[in-house]
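Support request from a user on the community tier.

User writes: "When I paste my C-alpha coordinates into the form, the page sometimes reloads and wipes my input. The last time it worked, I copied everything first. Here is what I submitted, just in case something in the input itself triggers the reload:"
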Protein backbone atom coordinates (compact mmCIF):
# COMPACT_ATOMS: atom_id res chain seq x y z
CA UNK A 1 0.00 0.00 0.00
CA UNK A 2 1.26 3.51 -0.78
CA UNK A 3 0.56 7.14 0.00
CA UNK A 4 0.04 9.90 -2.52
CA UNK A 5 2.32 12.83 -1.59
CA UNK A 6 1.78 16.27 -3.08
CA UNK A 7 4.16 19.11 -2.11
CA UNK A 8 3.16 22.57 -3.35
CA UNK A 9 4.91 25.95 -3.27
CA UNK A 10 3.29 29.23 -4.31
CA UNK A 11 4.80 28.82 -7.80
CA UNK A 12 4.44 25.14 -8.65
CA UNK A 13 3.74 21.55 -7.75
CA UNK A 14 7.09 20.30 -6.47
CA UNK A 15 6.18 16.65 -5.92
CA UNK A 16 3.09 14.63 -6.86
CA UNK A 17 3.73 10.91 -6.65
CA UNK A 18 3.17 7.76 -4.63
CA UNK A 19 5.56 7.11 -1.73
CA UNK A 20 5.97 4.38 0.89
CA UNK A 21 6.27 6.69 3.91
CA UNK A 22 7.34 10.16 5.01
CA UNK A 23 8.81 11.75 8.12
CA UNK A 24 7.56 15.31 8.58
CA UNK A 25 8.59 17.95 11.14
CA UNK A 26 5.58 19.69 12.65
CA UNK A 27 5.23 22.45 15.22
CA UNK A 28 4.82 19.74 17.89
CA UNK A 29 7.64 17.40 16.76
CA UNK A 30 8.33 14.89 14.01
CA UNK A 31 5.67 12.50 12.77
CA UNK A 32 6.06 9.40 10.64
CA UNK A 33 3.28 8.78 8.16
CA UNK A 34 2.51 5.31 6.83
CA UNK A 35 -0.52 4.13 4.84
CA UNK A 36 -3.83 4.38 6.74
CA UNK A 37 -2.53 7.12 9.05
CA UNK A 38 -5.18 8.89 11.12
CA UNK A 39 -6.41 12.15 9.56
CA UNK A 40 -4.51 15.22 10.76
CA UNK A 41 -3.90 18.84 9.79
CA UNK A 42 -0.74 20.46 11.15
CA UNK A 43 1.69 23.32 10.78
CA UNK A 44 5.02 22.34 9.20
CA UNK A 45 8.28 23.55 10.74
CA UNK A 46 11.35 24.75 8.87
CA UNK A 47 13.12 21.41 8.66
CA UNK A 48 13.69 18.31 6.53
CA UNK A 49 10.92 16.23 4.93
CA UNK A 50 12.13 12.65 4.52
CA UNK A 51 10.48 10.66 1.73
CA UNK A 52 10.81 6.88 1.28
CA UNK A 53 10.36 5.99 -2.35
CA UNK A 54 10.69 2.19 -2.61
CA UNK A 55 14.06 1.43 -0.94
CA UNK A 56 15.52 4.92 -1.36
CA UNK A 57 15.19 7.88 1.01
CA UNK A 58 15.00 11.39 -0.45
CA UNK A 59 15.11 14.60 1.55
CA UNK A 60 13.56 17.98 0.95
CA UNK A 61 14.20 21.04 3.12
CA UNK A 62 10.89 22.76 3.79
CA UNK A 63 10.66 26.41 4.78
CA UNK A 64 7.50 26.15 6.88
CA UNK A 65 3.90 25.67 5.84
CA UNK A 66 0.93 23.38 6.47
CA UNK A 67 0.16 19.69 5.90
CA UNK A 68 -3.08 17.74 5.58
CA UNK A 69 -3.05 13.95 5.94
CA UNK A 70 -6.04 11.67 5.32
CA UNK A 71 -7.28 8.78 3.15
CA UNK A 72 -3.67 7.88 2.20
CA UNK A 73 -3.21 11.37 0.72
CA UNK A 74 -0.69 13.88 2.03
CA UNK A 75 -0.78 17.49 0.86
CA UNK A 76 2.02 19.78 2.03
CA UNK A 77 1.80 23.52 1.30
CA UNK A 78 5.16 25.24 1.85
CA UNK A 79 6.72 28.66 1.35
CA UNK A 80 9.85 27.24 -0.32
CA UNK A 81 11.92 24.04 -0.53
CA UNK A 82 15.38 22.69 -1.42
CA UNK A 83 15.90 19.10 -2.56
CA UNK A 84 18.49 16.41 -1.92
CA UNK A 85 19.11 12.90 -3.19
CA UNK A 86 21.32 10.46 -1.25
CA UNK A 87 22.37 13.14 1.22
CA UNK A 88 23.80 15.57 -1.35
CA UNK A 89 22.10 18.97 -1.53
CA UNK A 90 21.03 19.57 -5.10
CA UNK A 91 20.14 22.76 -6.89
CA UNK A 92 16.87 23.23 -8.66
CA UNK A 93 16.41 25.75 -11.42
CA UNK A 94 13.30 27.88 -10.86
CA UNK A 95 12.73 27.99 -14.64
CA UNK A 96 12.92 24.21 -15.12
CA UNK A 97 10.11 22.90 -17.34
CA UNK A 98 8.91 19.67 -15.75
CA UNK A 99 5.99 19.00 -18.11
CA UNK A 100 7.78 16.11 -19.85
CA UNK A 101 8.86 14.32 -16.67
CA UNK A 102 7.32 10.94 -15.88
CA UNK A 103 8.96 10.24 -12.48
CA UNK A 104 9.75 12.49 -9.54
CA UNK A 105 13.44 11.47 -9.59
CA UNK A 106 13.83 13.19 -12.95
CA UNK A 107 13.29 16.51 -11.15
CA UNK A 108 16.67 16.18 -9.45
CA UNK A 109 19.93 17.18 -11.11
CA UNK A 110 23.42 17.08 -9.61
CA UNK A 111 24.64 19.65 -12.12
CA UNK A 112 24.12 23.20 -10.82
CA UNK A 113 22.51 25.55 -13.28
CA UNK A 114 24.26 28.83 -14.10
CA UNK A 115 21.29 30.71 -12.59
CA UNK A 116 22.05 29.34 -9.13
CA UNK A 117 25.78 30.18 -9.06
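"...and here is what came back when it finally went through:"
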Amino acid sequence: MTLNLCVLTPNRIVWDSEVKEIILSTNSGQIGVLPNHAPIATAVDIDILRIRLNDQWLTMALMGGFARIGNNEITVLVNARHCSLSGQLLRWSPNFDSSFISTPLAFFSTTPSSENN
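Agent notes: The reload is a front-end session timeout and is unrelated to the input. Strands lie at 3-8, 13-19, 21-26, 29-33, 40-53, 56-70, 73-78, 81-85, 88-90. The first strand starts at residue 3 and ends at 8. Escalated to web team.
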